[in-house]
């Protein structure tokens, strides 16, 4: 329990000396017990003067020791008593300081344990995510390798076309069909460069609509293809947008010879 005391009493208690408590037992009890009861206690115990000395640390009061004398007796060896109270005060301060240090140490250990646990959990989560990401990358590489193999070994000339009509990937059959090498085609040529003038505007419109309204354009149709030498070839085209992208994949089948036979 903490009791409020006035400045004068505080100065007396923190002086390092035993001071007489004025007002008897009533003031000693900080006026918390009725005066009539205090007088009865004084009479019952035959109380005389009351002395008090505070436990102080750096000018701050954290407790006190009191000496109650019998009526008619004098306080003797006051200096010895003051020394004893001072030593008790120092011992209490040391004990409380050690207790506070231990509490701080315990709290620090708790925080360290909590932080260590958080770091372990975070590390485990990062490790799991890294493993998951590595597996996804491996799966993606396997898929890319598989589809690239299929793309390169399919029997038809095949290209991947970007939204801006640039050919970003061409297989060996398209090299044969066009007369250009992959290095000359990929990222450098537009598919429009291989289309005859009469088919060009129609196919450009197909290209645009295929990315906004895929059902509005055919996936298969014929057009005339111009190769490196300027030769015109009849082509049956199959084209579609790659899901989740703006790219399209186109497969070109040379039907020139078949059409010549049909026309004969």
UniProtKB/TrEMBL annotation:
Q: Which SUPFAM superfamilies match?
A: PYP-like sensor domain (PAS domain)
The yes or no answer to whether the keyword Glycoprotein is present is no
GO BP terms, alphabetized: regulation of DNA-templated transcription
Q: Which Gene3D superfamilies match?
A: PAS domain
**What's in the keyword line of the UniProt record?**
Coiled coil
What residue ranges carry the coiled-coil annotation? 98-139
**PAS domain ranges (all copies):** 143-212
InterPro entries of this UniProt entry?
Biofilm_reg_signaling (IPR052155), PAS (IPR000014), PAS-like_dom_sf (IPR035965), PAS_fold (IPR013767)
Please identify the protein, giving its name as recorded: PAS domain-containing protein
* Organism for this UniProt entry: marine sediment metagenome
């Amino acid at each position: 329990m903490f009791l409020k005391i006035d400045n004068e009493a505080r100065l007396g208690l923190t002086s390092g000396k035993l001071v007489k408590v004025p007002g008897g037992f009533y003031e000693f009890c900080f006026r918390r017990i009725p005066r009539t009861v205090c007088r009865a206690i004084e009479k019952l115990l035959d109380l005389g003067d009351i002395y008090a000395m505070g436990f102080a640390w750096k000018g701050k009061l954290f407790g006190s020791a009191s000496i109650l004398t019998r009526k008619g007796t004098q306080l003797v060896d006051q200096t010895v008593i003051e020394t004893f109270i001072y030593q008790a005060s120092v011992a209490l301060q040391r004990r409380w300081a050690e207790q506070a240090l231990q509490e701080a140490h315990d709290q620090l250990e708790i925080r360290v344990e909590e932080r260590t646990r958080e770091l372990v959990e975070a590390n485990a989560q990062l490790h799991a995510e890294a493993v998951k990401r590595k597996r996804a990358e491996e799966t993606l590489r396997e898929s890319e390798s598989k589809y690239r193999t299929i793309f390169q070994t399919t029997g038809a000339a095949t290209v991947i076309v970007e939204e801006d009509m640039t050919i970003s990937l061409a297989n060996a059959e398209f090299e044969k069909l066009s007369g250009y090498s992959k290095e000359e085609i990929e990222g450098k040529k537009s598919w429009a460069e291989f289309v005859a003038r009469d088919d060009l505007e129609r196919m450009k419109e197909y290209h645009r609509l295929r990315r906004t309204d895929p059902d509005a354009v055919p996936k298969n149709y014929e057009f005339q293809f111009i190769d490196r030498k300027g030769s015109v070839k009849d082509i049956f085209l199959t084209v579609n947008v790659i899901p989740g992208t703006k790219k399209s994949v186109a497969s070109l089948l040379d039907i020139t010879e078949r059409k010549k036979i049909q026309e004969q």
